[in-house]
Amino acid sequence: MFHITIKKTYDEVSAEAFKVMEGVLKGDHTPVLGLATGSSPVGLYKEMIRDHKENGTSYKDIITFNLDEYIGLPRDHRESYWTFMHVNLFNHIDIPDENVHVPLGCGEDPEADCAAYEAELSKYTVDVQVLGIGSDGHIAFNEPGCPFDSVTHTMELTEQTRRDNARFFDNDINQVPTSAATMGLASIMRAKKIILIATGANKADAVWGMIKGPKTTDCPASILQDHPEVYVFLDEEAASRL
Ligand code: F6R
Predict the structure, then answer these.
(1) Distance CA 22, CA 143 (A)
(2) Has domain 2-235 been given CATH number 3.30.420.40?
(3) Is residue 129 within 8 Å of residue 188, measured between CB atoms?
(4) Is the CB of 39 under 6 A from ligand 1?
(5) Is 203 helix (H, G, I), strand (E, B) or coil?
(6) When you count CB atoms within 10 A of the terminal residue's CB, does the N or C end of the chain come out lower?
(7) DSSP state of 198
(8) Ligand 1 centroid distance, CA of 54 (Å)
(9) Which of 155, 154, 220 is nearest to 188 (CA)?
């Protein structure tokens, strides 16, 4: 079930998304958070940092699981998702590093590392999972064709995704890793609530496919049609085909 909010600016979109996050943070138990990287959630993370600094909301006991990581980048690489999360959120709140989980992309056996990640994740129930959406309809790095029953696994990135993400790698697609370790679609669907943020015209087709299109692995995000509680935050451009 989708609850859709459309706002004019990215800051308004982020502030609305924070309201759902705030409800979870201030709920009746210490939550487990599922987190995403990329441009879409940065404004939400800024709101979380502001709230931590202004209102003292503590993350000392909060556990987090990130969606994905590039394969082949060491954790201290400037564009690893481990680094991204520290720069954009973890370094600014009081979460202990041992509470943080990001898939390992630089181990010797990525498949085994994915299985270990899924085993750890399945000990918990994620209260809210933050998502962006790829212009090809991916969520996490579950690219078109990925089975709906997938759990944490490795995935070849599509050329479209690598082109989209080249902006983080000196606009050079050759520097963008070719594969990633990612939570699967079934792993994501176990979260109690989902916050999905999408802005900009290049997301309009994927947003349409997620909400209005047929439920098909051609648009991995369309699996969310079966989720009971998905909060979708869009700007007018991303919502333009709805
Ligand atoms: C990142 C992730 C990806 C991004 C998607 C959109 O952890 O899982 O699915 O959410 O590629 O990226 P942005 O927000 O940069 O447009």
Answers:
(1) 30
(2) no
(3) yes
(4) yes
(5) helix
(6) N
(7) E
(8) 28
(9) 220
- What does the pLDDT read at residue 66? 98
The whole-angstrom separation of Cα 49 and Cα 14 is 12
What is the pLDDT, as a whole number, of residue 137?
97
Query: What span, in angstroms and rounded, lies between the C-alpha atoms of 211 and 182?
Result: 22
Cα distance between residue 173 and residue 208, in whole Å: 27
Q: Which two tokens stand for residue 73?
A: 């980048």
Assess contact for 143 and 154: CB atoms under 8 A. no
Q: How far does the centroid of ligand 1 lie from the alpha carbon of residue 84, in Å?
A: 12
146 lines ligand 1 (CB under 6 A): no
Domain ranges within the chain, ordered by starting residue: 2-235
Give the model confidence (pLDDT) of 39-56 as tens digits. 999 999 999 999 999 999
138 assigned to active site: yes
Q: Whose CA is nearest to atom 15 of ligand 1?
A: 38
Whole-number pLDDT of residue 49: 98
Mean pLDDT computed over 57-71: 98
- Which DSSP helix (H) or strand (E) runs through 162? helix 159-165
For the stretch 163-178, pLDDT in tens is 999 999 999 999 999 9
Contact assessment for residue 152 and residue 121, using Cβ atoms and an 8 Å cutoff: yes
Dist CA 1 CA 3 (whole Å): 7
The 10 Å Cβ neighbour count of residue 86 is: 17
pLDDT in tens, 138-159: 999 999 999 999 999 999 999 9
Count of C-beta atoms within a 10 Å radius of residue 125:
11
| Smallest CA separation from ligand 1 atom 8, residue | 140
pTM greater than 0.90:
yes
